[in-house]
Amino acid sequence: MRPSNFARRLLYWASVALGLVLAIVPLPDWLGAARPDFALLAVVYWILTSPRIAGLGYAWLAGLFLDVLCGMTLGQHALGFVLVAFLAHRSQLRMRMFPILHQAGAVMLLLATYHFLIFWTDGLTGHGYTGWNRWLPVLSGALLWPLIVAAGDSLTRRSR
Amino acid sequence: MVELSHDSRPIIGRGPPLGATFLTLALASIGLMVADVRYDQLGRVRELLSAGAYPVQVAVDLPFRAWHWLTGSFADRSRLRQENLELTARLRLANLQLQRFAALEDENRRLRDMRENSAGVADRVLVASILNVDLDPFRHRVLVDKGARDGAFKGQAVLDAEGIFGQVAQVHAETAEVILISDAEHAIPVQSNRSGLRTIAVGTGDSDRLSLPFVTVESDLKAGDLLISTGIGGVFPRGYPVAEVTRVDRTAAATFALVDARPTARLDRNREVLLVWFTPPASTDGPADGTTTQPAATGTTEPAADPAAETPQ
Question: Where are the domains of chain B?
């Protein structure tokens, strides 16, 4: 028997909450710059596995929570999340078929789009930081993707 | 299941098309950003939303706090004794100095009163502790556990025991974001304690270094000079140590000298900071304009000073 949509939604929000906690857990300085966007990866994963439940509104709210937590400009991460969610939704039929490494590459493109948007809005609001290491999360997120998929799959195997 | 469109939601009850949802939400985010940045209209909204963020931040901070508490309560006796002795010695020394300073402060206030400019000295402080939360790897901002509910306001000066720490950049209900003086977007007007030279210290993004970009090669400034706050701009109280000049590089061909300073506040390893209330000076050290400002009664909050005066965007 399939678990109810409510249980699923609960699981999706719990994983986003975990991602948000991981977004502000203190890390050593050298590692802090490369912190992957856990919440965004969780959102992308759930959109790829069950796009009927995890929609754009879900992604937008997750991004808004991240804005509130790390708060520079309200709406900045929300915009990034909703753009990535839209792209993931559009290509999810294809992306689900990709082998895992290929999929990680596609996720890297999504993350690059996201970070470019953040970089751009940062610049518009006058907080631009132009160092090379601001692009590190794109790489670390893509490297982490197989692990996210493995964790998510083992979490939902029973319910499929 | 064969589907021809990109939209894989069920056909019945799928709601508005994907593109329309995307457009609506994207416009909503852009609207939020504009309202936040251009018009600074979201104070209330932020406060409400941060009520949801607060438990998460506390949950992240909790293990660190517990560890701090544990190491504190299980410290061995000899170390505590040692620490106690050291503190007693320091307190005695500080008290001795304080006696001298009390007389000096009295005299200073009388002299200032004569010049009709007695404001700018901290009236009231509130101890706040820093939450162990990473906000942004590229900016020097920290979260403290005092917020609007305790009377903190945007643009409030934050000090630690050794000098000026930063200023409040964003107030939430229970917490406040403090931007450090070492943040690359922060600037603070300073004055050399020795020569009285006034200039601006700009953060570099490195917590051990401030930069003084507007010091001409002829200026009277040398390594070891203490830089204190001037009180100009009304954000920081005057006369508190900010940084110590570590390097002055003069090249004859250049207009400006390369000057670095090290903040006296311990920006990277501090758990407790002080939020400060004070009466901003009415006239910034210019000729007295005839208005006498009295020190504010303790317990009142000052109207938010404009942080834009101190932080160039």
Answer: 18-72, 119-285+302-313
